[in-house]
Amino acid sequence: MTRIITIAGGKGGVGKTTLSANLGAALADFDRDTTIIDANLTTPNLGLHLGIPLYPVTLHDVLKGKNNIKDAIYEHESGAKIVPAGISLRDLRGTDARDLPNAILDLLGHNDIIILDAAAGLGKEALAAMESADELLLITTPELPAVTDALKAIKLSEQLGAKTTGIIVNRVSGGKHEMKMREIENMLGRSVMGVIPEDSAVHRSIAYRTPVIHYAPRSNAAKAIRQIAADIAGVRLKEEQRKRFRFF
Ligand SMILES: Nc1ncnc2c1ncn2[C@@H]1O[C@H](COP(=O)(O)OP(=O)(O)OP(=O)(O)O)[C@@H](O)[C@H]1O
Ligand SMILES: [Mg+2]
Predict the structure, then answer these.
(1) 192: containing domain
(2) Which residue has its alpha carbon closest to ligand 1 atom 9?
(3) I need a surface site. Which of 56, 59, 227, 229 has the fewest CB within 10 A?
(4) 239 alpha carbon to ligand 2 midpoint, in Å?
(5) How far apart (Å, rounded) are the C-alpha atoms in residues 80 and 35?
(6) Does residue 25 sit within a domain?
(7) CB atoms within 10 A of CB 50
(8) CB within 5 A of ion ligand 2: which residues?
(9) Mean pLDDT of the chain
(10) Residue 148 lies in a domain
(11) Among residues 40, 44, 50, 90, which one has the least CA distance to residue 74?
(12) CB 221, CB 196: distance < 8 Å
C-alpha cells in the first residue's frame, strides 16, 4: 500500500523542502520506493534543493490535463523519484491546485511512499497538499510565530480529515530564546516525533544542490533526518547511527 505523507508547516521557510528532499533520499536508502512531489505550485524549489535540471513535463502539465503524472516522474541520483513543478510564470496559467489529490491517484500502488512538499501558508495550494495526505508531518521551528502557524495548520487539517501524524522541530540550537520541546508539545497537543538541529551543513548542502544526508552524512542534521526516516519506515538503525539529540 502506498503511503502519502505531506510535509506542511503553516509558516514559510521552516524547512519543508529541506525535509522533503532529505526524507525522500533517506527512505530511498532504506529501499523504500519513494516519490517526492513538489506541491509548491507558485514558488516551487524542490528542484533547486536537488539540482534537478529543467524537465519537459512537470506537475503543472499534469494539473492542466496535458499529461498523466507518470509522464512527470524522473529518477534522481539519490534513488528517490521526483515529480517537479514548472518554474515559469506561464506554467501557472490554467493550473488549479485543487486538482492535486486526483492527479496523485495514478501513482497509488506504484510506490511505497509519496512525499508531498507543501507550499507555505494555509492557502489553496497548501490545503490541496494536506487534503491529498494520509499522513501529515508538520514542521516548525522552536519559535512562537512558527508554532502558532503550525497549530492553525493542525486545526485546518483536522477539518479536512487529514491526520497529523508527527511534529518535527527544525533548526533547534538549544538557545534560551527557543521554545522548549515540552512547551511546543503542550501548545500543539501532540508529541514531537523528531528534532533537527540548526546545522550549517544544511546551508552548504543546498548550495551544492545535494541532500545533506549525502552531502554531509555525519552532520547532526543528517543523523536526525535519517532517524526520522527510519521511524517512518519502521527501520531500526544500528547503535552508532542512532545518536539522539538532547535538546529536551
Ligand atoms: N536544520 C537546518 N539548519 C540550518 N539551516 C536550515 C535547516 N533547515 C533549513 N534551513 C535553512 O532554512 C531555509 C529554508 O528552508 P526550506 O526551503 O527547506 O524551507 P521551506 O519551509 O520549504 O520554505 P518555503 O516556505 O519557502 O517553501 C534554507 O535556506 C535552509 O538553508
Ligand atoms: Mg519549500
Answers:
(1) 3-241
(2) 15
(3) 56
(4) 32
(5) 6
(6) yes
(7) 26
(8) 16-17
(9) 92
(10) yes
(11) 50
(12) yes
Residue 176: give its domain's CATH number: 3.40.50.300
* 247 found inside a domain: no
- In short, whether 94's Cβ falls inside 6 Å of ligand 1 is no
- Indicate the helix (H) or strand (E) that contains 231: helix 220-233
Q: At what angle do helices 220-233 and 200-207 cross, to 10 degrees?
A: 80
Give me ligand 2 centre to Cα 115, in Å.
13
Give CA 184 to chain center in angstroms: 20
- Set of cell numbers at residue 167: 511534529
Question: Which of 7, 16, 18 has most ligand 1 atoms within 8 Å of its beta carbon, as the pocket-test mutant?
Answer: 18
Tens digit of each residue's pLDDT (9 = 90 or more) over 66-97: 999 999 999 999 999 999 999 888 888 888 99
Distance 240 CA to ligand 2 centre (A): 31
Give the contacts of 175 (CB within 8 A, at least 6 positions apart). Answer: none
Predicted local confidence at residue 248, as pLDDT? 34
Has this prediction a pTM greater than 0.85? Answer: yes
Q: Record the cell numbers describing residue 73, joined without a space.
A: 516522474
Task: Compute the half-sphere exposure of residue 3: CA atoms within 13 Å on the CB side of its CA.
Answer: 17
Q: State which ligand 1 atom lies nearest to the alpha carbon of 9.
A: 21
Which amino acid is it at 26? A
Q: Residues 47, 118: contact at Cβ < 8 Å? A: no
Structural domains in the chain (count): 1
